[in-house]
Each structure stands twice: as structure tokens, then as C-alpha cells.
Amino acid sequence: MAADDRKYTKEHEWVMVEGDVATVGVTDYAASELGDVVFLELPEAGSPVTQGDAVGTIETVKSVEDLFSPVTGEVIEVNEDVLDAPETVNASPMDGGWLFKVRLDGDADLDELLTADEYQALIGG
Amino acid sequence: MPYTPHTEQDVREMLRVVGVDSIDALFASLPAEVRVDALNMPPGLSEHDVLQVLGGLASLNTPQGDYASFLGGGVYDHLIPSAAEAITSRSEFLTAYTPYQPEVSQGTLQVIYEWQTFITRLTGLPVSNASMYDGATALVEGVLMALAKTRRSVAVVPETLNPRYRAVLDTHLAWNGMEVRTAGRAADGTTDPDALAAVLDDAVGCVVIQNPNYLGCLEKADALAAQAAASGALVVACVNPVSLSLLKTPGEYGAAVAVGEAQPFGVPPTWGGPLLGFLSCTDELKRQIPGRVVGRTQDARGREGYVLTLQTREQHIRREKATSNICSNQGLNMCRATVTMALLGAEGLREMGHANRVRCETLRGLLRELPGVELPFAAPVFNEFVVRLPGDAEDFCEYARERGLLPGIVLDGAAGCDERDLLVAVTEKRSTVDIQAYAEILHDYLEEVEA
Questions:
Q1: Per-residue pLDDT reduced to its tens digit, B200-258
Q2: A66 touching B, CB under 8 A?
Q3: Which of A65, B9, B94, B100 stands the most exposed, by the fewest C-beta atoms within 10 Å?
């Protein structure tokens, strides 16, 4: 079952909200479907992002996919560890492999996100 | 012999399936005014007659070999080793398709890998792609890489950039919401550092340095690159690869991308094409590199092999989100250039560069002595320079052509030059006899004009 301590998107990203900061990563389902991650392009700290925007890319041995921002706000931190060691995304997608943090600009768009149950239904579980 | 693939039976069969009874009926929906009843074409000819007609047309051309050519401006007349022609003519290279299937393309892939190795060594940058169509489009791709990396929207180019490269760059950038600014030139023929400073600001993501520049002058590349770096812009160096055996490499003066035209290595000038672009870059920019890259690897049994790499960013996978709409390379000319560079070797390349420089200086010295002739630019040159005649340079070109010599390109309007200015290139292929003849023909011409 998908962990119910966070929310999800149809693009297979997870969002964990603590206070006004959302941490974003890709789900373990996505990490296993994508295969070995070899490179990540993440948004720069300080850049504004809007829910649904393509803000980076995730490159695996067989494809390059866009990363979308699941929320609206300002990027305050990116995970330098995954830039140095992209394989962290495969090893620990839901935890050490987080990608970036966004200071939320209000919480209206959190309603658009999927619950753990809804995400589990999406991936067929 | 059935040259037309559709036999009458094929046509009847197709019409039957479509459900009409004639070709006219098939096209009946087209309005009469757009239909053509008869093409303005002569009747068919026999194979022999066709060869006669085409041979007659071809004989109207004068082969370039009939002239001593001093034409340059981006495309040069260099010696081509016979082995380059012979090796490239092998059907394995000549007819090879794009090497998507590495198990049947090891030869092609290895040639590309060697090309990349040569280009990285010549330019002093660690990553090269598999080649590009020509120097102008390579420059565009280099500028787009630098702007993508810096997330800025303005490129600065020198006034002394090859005007054809400038036109191609303008075409690409204008429709991408980007701006091209010009840094003017100083009196000595090189880019004016004050003019560069005047157009630099924090919107500028890329500064192009062409070295030697279109006027043949050697830019103070170190200083220009430092100025660009200080404003946070990346340097795209547009260079003549023949000059790199003598000059500092783009890598040495801090360029992020090096581009240029590799036609001088083994590709004849023909009609000004097909040409051969190259592009190399720093490690930080490799994910932005357009086209394809060949990598060396090992198979499951530990044997060395070559494969296309970074394909994940090419158009056939990333579609409209690909790094570039270029997803091919210039295979045949790249093969010629690679064979030529391999035959020359490091020592041969230095000799070639040296011969270009010395012969160019020789002609420059002879022309400097002629009364009425001026060398307008004081900056040092490599294998090309501008000479200013007392009158219309086109008039002299005509005079020289009648005497078996192509004396250069008239620079009307380029980089602040006018119709008196002639761009003259001297490669290792021009003999001392050719060089002497140039000076004599110009001498005679000036005397006749005087008289």
C-alpha cells in the first residue's frame, strides 16, 4: 500500500507537507518502473514554481522524463545528494531520494493531489 | 526496363480497390484551374542522348582545379590525401546507415569515436558530438546550449563574425524569443573590448568569439573570454580547426563550447557544400549537447565495442522535448575528415598550420609592397587577410579570373568593409608560383588601371 503520511500525483510524485514546506520526490513505483536513474536536473533554489509546471528532468538508462512541480510556491532547497548520486532515487525514493522542497504559496492546490488510497488505485493495487 | 514502379496492372488494381474507373476520375475532385494538362517537358531521351545533354551542361562549369583559388571566408581549398577518398569510398562507409544497431555498425561507430577524440584534442574540451551539418548550424547549437545552461536570453556576437553564420543565427534565435547583440570591431580588425563591455549585462548568457575572425584577424581571445566570464556569460568559440595546431585551444581560454567548420580536413570546396560542422563542450554542458555521441564500452564478454550514447535526449525518444531538432550527423564528410586527420597526425597538423601561416604571410608581404594597395587591419592573421584596393575589387576579380586566378571574396558591407576590400585566403595548397603570380597579376592590373 502507498504510505499514507503524504499525498501523490498522477505523474507518480509524492508530496509531504510539514508546516508551509512541501518535500517532493518520485514514488517507489515510479523509481522501479523507470529503472536506473543516471542524471537529474532539478529546479534552482529560489526559483518560483507553479503546480503542474515541468521544472526538471529525470534521466534513466532508457529514457528522460519531465519532473513536474506538484505544488505552487518557491523552491527553497534541492537535494544535493541525489545530484551527486542519482542512484539514491532508486535505493530510497520515498526518503533519502527526495528531490526538492517548496515553500507553499497558500495551500489551495493541495486539494488537487491524490490521497494514498487514490494513488494506490491508480497504480492498480 | 520498368523504371516506373506502377505497371498498368498495378494501376488498374489500385483503381479497382478505391472504386473509380480511371486516373482522371480519381482526381476529378481537383478544381480545373489547378490541374495541369501538359508539363512543359521535352520528350524522353535515350540513355546515350541524356549523357550527351548532361555532359554538355557540365562542360559549362569550369572545374575549380583550373584556377589557383585564394577563396576562403569559411570554405577553403586544402590538399586532400588520396587515401581519404579511397577509404571513404569503401561501401561499408559510403553506404552506411545511421548506426542504431551497434552489433552491425562497429566500423562506423569507431570512426565517429575517433572523430570525437580528434575534435576534443584539437579544441581542448572533453566532450565532442558525432559532427554537425556545417559550421553555421554548429554555432547556433552552441549558442542555444549556452543560453539553456545560463537560462538567459541574449547572445552577443562580434561584428567580425562570418555574416553567413550571423544570418543563420538570427534566423534561429529570432523565433525562439532570444536576442542577438553585436559587439563592434576596433580599427585593427579585432573585437573592441569597450564595445563588448557596452553590450554585456546580466541578460547575456553567451558571448561568441570567432578566431580567426571573418577578416582573418586573430582575436585577443583570452581577454574577451575573461570579460564574458566576469559578466556570467559562457563563451562559445567558433574556430578554424586548422589553426588549432598553432593557436591556444578554446579549452585553454575557458570556452564552454567550441564549434566550427571541419571542411578544411579532406572535404573539397565543391559548390560551397556539403560541409562538416564540429561541436565540443565542457563536462558541465554535456547533457545539453545536440545530436549524437558515440561511447566506448564493453560487451557481456568484456570485449571492447562502440555504441550511441545519450540517445535518451534525442528526438526519436524525447520528441518535441529533445535537446535539439538535430538528431543526425554528417557521416560521410566526418569520415573523410577523420581519415585526413589520422593521416596527418599531430606533427602533420602542425606542419599544415605552419605552411598556411607562412604562405599567407608571404603573399601579405608581397602585396604590402604594391603602391596603392593597403592592408587595412594591423592585427596578426593565420591563413587569411583583407587587402584594400584603390577601386572596386570586383573589377580586379574579373581581371584575375581571366588569368586563371580566383583572388578572393569582395567584402562589400561585411564587418564595416566596403567594395574595395578583398578577403584573401592562402592555404598550403598554394605554391610559391601561385603566390608570386597573384602579386604580379595585381601589379599588372594596377598599372593598367593607372594607364
A1: 999 999 999 999 999 999 999 999 999 999 999 999 999 999 999 999 999 999 999 99
A2: yes
A3: B9
Q: Cα separation of B69 and B410, whole Å?
A: 14
Using a 10 angstrom Cβ sphere, with 0-12 exposed, 13-18 middle and 19 or more buried, the burial of residue A47 is middle
Classified by CATH at the fold level, domain B82-340 comes out as: Aspartate Aminotransferase; domain 2 (3.40.640)
β-partners of residue A18 are A21
Q: Is the pLDDT of residue B340 over 70?
A: yes
Distance from CA of B75 to the nearest CA of A (A): 38
Q: How many domains does chain A have?
A: 1
DSSP reduced 3-state for A77: strand
How far apart are the CA of A96 and the nearest CA of chain B, in angstroms?
24
- Residues A3-41: pLDDT tens digits? 889 999 999 999 999 999 999 999 999 999 999 999 999
In this prediction, the answer to ipTM > 0.85 reads no
Check CB contact under 8 Å for A59 and B317.
Answer: no
Give per-residue pLDDT as tens, A72-114. 999 999 999 999 999 999 999 999 999 999 999 887 788 889 9
DSSP code for B431:
-
The residue among B254, B249, B256 whose CA lies nearest residue B282 is B256
pLDDT given for residue B317 in this prediction:
73
> B313 and A62 in contact by Cβ < 8 A?
no
Rounded to two decimals, the pTM is 0.86
Per-residue cell: B236? 562559445
Question: Given the DSSP bridges, would you call strands A37-41 and A54-60 parallel, antiparallel or unpaired?
Answer: antiparallel
What top-level class would CATH report for the domain B67-77+346-450?
Answer: alpha beta
Between A and B, how many residue pairs show a Cβ–Cβ distance under 8 A?
A: 16
- Domain positions in chain B are 67-77+346-450, 82-340
State which amino acid sits at residue A68. Answer: F
- Domain that residue A50 falls in: 7-105
The answer to whether the Cα torsion of B233, B239, B241, B247 is positive or negative is: negative
